[in-house]
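Review this chain:
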Amino acid sequence: MTATDPASGRDGEDALVERFAGLGAAIVFDAMHAMGLPNGVMDTRVRHLSGAPVAGRARTVNRSTAAANARQPAFGPDLAMGTQQVIDSAQPGEILVIALGGDASGATWGANMATRAAARGAQAVVTDGAVRDIADMPAIGIAVYAQGTSPRVNFQHIVTLAIDQPVVCGGVLVAPGDIVIADHDGVIVVPAAQAREVAQRARAMHETEERMQAAIRDGAGLVEAIRQYKIR
């Protein structure tokens, strides 16, 4: 467990994230719903493609289809390798969130990026775009959650608008430092400000569901078990 980061004033990578250990996206959604928080589940097209379930803090890249009359210099020539800058400064346990407005016409992620991200200790990439070199990802050690795959790279077609700023990925607002939980069910984002309370509620609900499932295995009927245990 890392101590509080004095520069950011937040739990380091990972007192807060560790609170979500063993909690899947589904139970985290249930907790957020029970608390009346906005839906943080990304579009179902953003799905598991490779690697293990993950929970970690978000690092963000905002990318977009280029305007018909402009290329990267118009949006900031210093951002031409914005994604690479974020990868080069990634911290252990972080999850890279690359927003593309749902444009999956070409890959925004590949083996070279993944290799460097893994070397920096990043856990995963989440994007509402496409990736390539997916067969290499297990050996590299980066989990991938994306809309799909494509061998094509979007040369000149995609521009980078900002890094380390709030983005909308898969229809969900993601701010740097938010908690991202991703598994085979999908991807959910927990705002950092509510993360402790969400983790506490999700943990309690998870333990209740374990007791409920144990009762069912011991012969309890589903209606009986729901009435006894199901609290939303």
In short: The chain has one domain: 15-191. The radius of gyration is 19 Å. Residues 1-11 have pLDDT under 50 and may be disordered.
